[in-house]
Each structure stands twice: as C-alpha cells, then as structure tokens.
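TA notes. Do not distribute before section.
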Amino acid sequence: MIQIQDIDHVVFRVRDLDAMVAFYKDVLGATFEKYQEGPGLYQLRVGSSLIDLVPVDGKLGRMGGAAPGAEGHNVDHVCFRVRPWDESAILDHLKRHDIAGEVVSRYGADGDGPSIYLSDPEGNMLELKGPPAL
C-alpha cells in the first residue's frame, strides 16, 4: 500500500517568471533552491516542499500547451500549511503587498481551521491554512 505523507512539490507553468519569483519570495517567503537548465525549471523552497516554476516558452513549458490565463488554469488551488499561525501578522503582511485577505474556517487535512485564499500574479489560487480549531 502507498502511504503519502506530504506534498513534495507543485509545478506551475508561468508567463512572467520574474513576477512569479518575486511574489513567491517576497510575499510567501520562499527561498531559491535550484535552477535546472536542461528543462528550464526554477525551484523555490517553502518549508519542506518545493514550488517549481516552468516558463511556458521554455523546453518543458511548451510541452504543456497554451499558457494559463483567465479562461484556463493548471490547477484549482494549492494549499500551504502555515505554522505558526498569527492571523493579524499574516493579514498585515499581505496588506503591505496590496493583497486583500479574509480569514474563513475551512476543512483541510488537519480538520477545520483558519484559511485565507489569495492569487499569485498569474491567477493561480492559493490557500494559506492555519492549525485546526481546538
């Protein structure tokens, strides 16, 4: 039997690599991990996971067809588990980056808990998920 423990990485096909790298680093605190020149893969670390960015006009990106846009996305959303969860500090940080956020209780892998939806510069929906409510 296969027992999945966590998400290893997520891959986004992107139109504007610089804007996407800046968002994930400046807003979500990702750090540069590695660049793989062959496939044109930019890897950023978030906690124990990676966010891979693949330019749509690169070797690997062209294999995915049309670029994501208003009428089509690669995924519905990706949820990032955030610990520690300091609601006011998180909302203040997002506001400094001109991102409006609303905390709503949603169910996730840990149970019901605080959650904020936001979009990256290319419209990928993201969820920041806090710990389960006690």
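Switch to the second chain here.
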Amino acid sequence: MLTKSELVRYERQIMMEGFGETGQAKLKEAKVLIAGAGGLGSPVAIYLAVAGVGEIRIVDHDVVELSNLNRQILHWDKDIGAAKAESAKEKLQQINADIKVEAIGQTITQGNILDLVGDCDLIVDGMDNFPTRYLLNKAALKKNIPFFHGSIYGLDGMVTTILPPETPCLRCIFPQPPPVETFPVVGVTPAIIGCIQATEVIKYIVSMGELLKNRLLLFDGLRLSFRELSVKKNPKCPDCSLLQRKA
C-alpha cells in the first residue's frame, strides 16, 4: 500500500507504537470532509494533509478577505478575492502532492449536505455558525459516521468527538444555537482547537488512543487551562432520539 517515498515521508509517525505501516495505510485510504476553509479548517486541513490522509474534501462557498488573514492560515495576501476552497486546495497540494484534495465552492444546505458528504468516512466541523453545524450533525447521524466538532470565541474554544449512535450528538450538547454575531478571535485559538480536532481524526482513523467521546474539552486561553465536561445523550433530542430508540 505504501510507496518508498511515503515510507520516508511518514517514517517518524510510523515508528510510533500502535501506529506503524498499518496505521499509515489506514490514513492513506481515508476520505475526510472538512466543512469550512477558515480559522478552524485551515489547521485541520494542514495537519491531516501532512499526516497523509489520502483524500480531503473541502467545502466553503466564501472568498478570501483581508480580515480573514489574522487566523485563516491557508490564505495569504495574494489570495484576497479568491475562492477559499480553491485557495486551500492550492496550498495543501503544495504541502503534500501525494494526497488528493477536492475543493467545493458551495454553501452547505439541507438540500445538498448528504451529496457533499458523499462517501467520506467522517466530517470535521470548521464552521462558524450553528445552523450549518446542525446540518452537519444530522448528516453524520444519517450516514452513521463520526463528527468532529470544534468552536472558538476570542481566546476560548471547545472540542468534542461525536460517534453516532454511541455518543451524544451536537444537538444533545447544544440544544439551542448561540446568538448570531461577529465574534472576536485571535489566530492562535483556532490553531489550538483545530490541531486538537486533527489529532482526534488521526486517532480515530488509525484506531489508537482514547477519543473525546462523551466529553466536551474546554480551552481557556487567558488562563492557559483545559477542563472537561461530561456530556450525555438527550433521550428527547430532535436530531438523534430516533437513532437512540433503534439502537
């Protein structure tokens, strides 16, 4: 499965106990949907690309603006006005020419979400709004695939890993969306949260370590501290309760 070049490129992670060539081959075979090519999607995509995830599909309808550049590290000054999905694809292919990157410049809607996910093995949440996150959550439930949630505000962030039908879904954890607003953010916050999401994705694909299931990890950048909250299924959840009854 792995070429001589790939064995050299990934040798430092292949040498990890529990990883090996088998784990690397799993990464090569994986197909990941990253929803959003912004602050969260950028570090997620970069570290999944350098880890050797075989196929990355990035969905983002937006174009690069100057105000994005303090945090959306896949985009540079030269990209202002360009489609974010295409800008992200360009950088990722330069980072690792051995992987396949697909750029889709569409708005995620209830009508197209299942087609956008397609045959992807998992979904990574790089969005900045909860209505779209709820659509991703429903798609993960419908397709019975993992959903890796991350969100940020200023120097704060949250991460959890949702494994249908085993764990609470996003709607169980956040029954109501927060108010819509233009929120503050320092670039290091999505970098930290995105790296944690990427770590979870790699662990899931390779089948190693303990995932953030049934746990919400909270990051406080001002105090530089982490804490965990236990989360549970809501038996009356409008999104996953039907799955719970079938399980």
